[in-house]
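Quick review question:
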């Protein structure tokens, strides 16, 4: 009508928490929906966690498994990304509060998809983390890379002086699940193949790699037969597999393990890797408190069969955070759950009938033991050796996000698996010690930046400008007065 402005109703707002498998596939699943998507995550990248151990052992660069989320979603016009750690979810007000470096943001939603994943669990012994980092983030992988290669360097130094360096050349991996197996296999290959010509005072092939687990078998989810086969393969590589051993203490120079019969053993080792357990994001507790949905021992929240929360059909939770039908904490559960939730949100807006309850389609599991050797389970099929390894290669190439990541991974795999080299061996002191240093600041990294209110851009710019002008004037005066090179006494 003439003279009147059309009031366009606001589009349906979907907030996605997390940029891992669930978050990214959820956001992408809404690309064609008539919604505005805001993806909030505490890192600026998506992370292909299954390849973190290759970053830690110098095969891949962090960039090839962690593309910027902003870039991945750049062409999806209905999506924006927001950096921040979600510190509160208010289901009543339908608001998310996130924070980064002391700056808080409140984001409103109509539908919410929570995919905040899991963190490492030390089973109540959080102090173990100081000496045995887990393997959950790029920070973890780079710190471990620094610790592993650093241990060889320190051993070389010590051995040149005639010191005993056994504790530096002993690597202990705690947890014989897929991550622990892959990590132990790669450290053994590193010691026995990659580094064998690189040192003068030590023989890297004499390094001990110990894989410890409280369970009586390796890779329990793969069944007894594949577990036994994997154990034998690891032992052929030189890995000592110690089963039925629970870690009871971890300190800077080693760890203590205890057996069922009461025996205890001390293993002196500087570089220890924790791959033993996971704990769902603490956001599941926030959601549980507001909905009454129970949490299991790993902190995972029970969801309805359609992945929503009791009394909140607008809130979906997917991936490692959920407890539903004993689903495993694997990438496909998160991906398929997120696609299901995105389809449901879109369908509701289009007036479609609800979907059938979420049903997980198991595409199989695999773990790499060493180059050209892996184990895989696809349906009833059990594969080992080269065939399983080739399958692993193919599947991982498909799922690495982005063309650049795939090409980069393929190139690095050729260098490491066909050749002997590892092109990502760069480590820095900061990678190893920055986390401990940050912990000493009360407010973490936020202590290193100005308070949001204190940042006075105009004043700081004026001061900087005056400083630069004075510097330029002094430079010009020195030249004009021919005073350069003249000593002033
Ligand atoms: C080392 C390792 C190896 C693995 N290997 C395999 C494998 O071979 N095959 C397989 O299928 N699965 C594997 N997994 C498991 C698989 O990676 C997970 O099941 C999958 O990542 C779960 O997806 P998700 O979206 O639930 O969580 P994640 O992928 O962990 O994503 C969680 C996201 O939430 C963000 N986040 C967390 N808390 C907050 C917060 N408070 N505020 C904002 N953002 C937050 C994180 O930064 C991250 O972006 C492996 C996992 C690890 C750690």
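Suggested answer, residue by residue:
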């Amino acid at each position: 009508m003439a003279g009147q402005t059309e009031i366009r109703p606001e589009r349906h707002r979907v907030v996605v928490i997390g940029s891992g498998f669930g978050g990214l596939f959820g956001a992408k699943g809404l690309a064609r929906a008539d919604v505005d998507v805001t993806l909030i995550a505490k890192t600026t990248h998506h992370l292909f966690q299954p390849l973190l151990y290759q970053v830690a052992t110098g095969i891949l660069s962090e960039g090839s498994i962690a593309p910027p989320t902003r870039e991945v979603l750049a062409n999806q016009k209905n999506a924006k990304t927001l950096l921040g750690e979600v510190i509160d979810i208010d289901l009543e007000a339908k608001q998310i509060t996130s924070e980064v470096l002391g700056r808080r943001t409140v984001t409103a939603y109509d539908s919410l998809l929570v995919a905040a994943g899991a963190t490492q669990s030390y089973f109540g012994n959080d102090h173990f983390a100081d000496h045995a980092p887990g393997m959950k983030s790029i920070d973890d992988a780079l710190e471990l890379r620094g610790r592993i290669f650093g241990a060889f360097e320190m051993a070389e130094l010590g051995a040149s002086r005639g010191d005993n360096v056994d504790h530096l050349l002993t690597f202990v991996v705690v947890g014989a699940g897929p991550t622990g197996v892959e990590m132990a296999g790669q450290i053994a290959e590193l010691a026995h193949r990659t580094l064998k010509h690189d040192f003068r005072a030590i023989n890297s092939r004499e390094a001990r790699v110990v894989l410890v687990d409280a369970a009586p078998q390796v890779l329990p989810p793969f069944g007894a037969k594949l577990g036994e086969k994997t154990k034998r393969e690891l032992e052929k590589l030189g890995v000592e597999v110690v089963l039925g051993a629970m870690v009871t203490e971890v300190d800077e120079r080693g760890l203590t393990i205890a057996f069922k019969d009461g025996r205890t053993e001390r293993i002196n080792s500087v570089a220890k890797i924790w791959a033993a357990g996971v704990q769902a994001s603490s956001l599941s507790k926030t959601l549980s408190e507001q909905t009454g949905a129970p949490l299991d021992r790993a902190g995972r929240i029970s969801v309805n069969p359609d992945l929503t929360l009791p009394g909140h059909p607008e809130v979906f939770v997917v991936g490692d955070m959920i407890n539903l039908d004993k689903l495993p904490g694997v990438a496909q559960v998160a991906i398929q759950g997120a696609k299901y939730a995105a389809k449901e949100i879109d369908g509701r807006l289009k007036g479609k009938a609800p979907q059938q309850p979420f049903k997980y389609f198991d595409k199989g599991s695999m773990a790499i033991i060493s180059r050209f050797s892996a184990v895989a389970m696809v349906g009833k099929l059990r594969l080992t050796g080269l065939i399983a390894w080739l399958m692993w290669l193919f599947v991982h190439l498909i799922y690495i996000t982005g063309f650049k990541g795939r090409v980069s991974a393929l190139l690095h795999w050729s260098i490491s698996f066909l050749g002997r080299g590892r092109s990502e061996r760069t480590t820095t002191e900061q990678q190893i010690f920055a986390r401990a240093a940050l912990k000493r600041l009360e407010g973490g990294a936020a202590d290193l930046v100005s308070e949001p209110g204190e940042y006075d851009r105009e004043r700081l710019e004026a001061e900087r400008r005056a400083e630069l002008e004075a510097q330029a004037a002094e430079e010009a005066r020195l030249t004009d007065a021919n005073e350069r090179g003249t000593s002033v006494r």
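Why it works: The chain has two domains: 12-42+84-121+279-349, 126-276+365-439. The chain has a mean pLDDT of 93.
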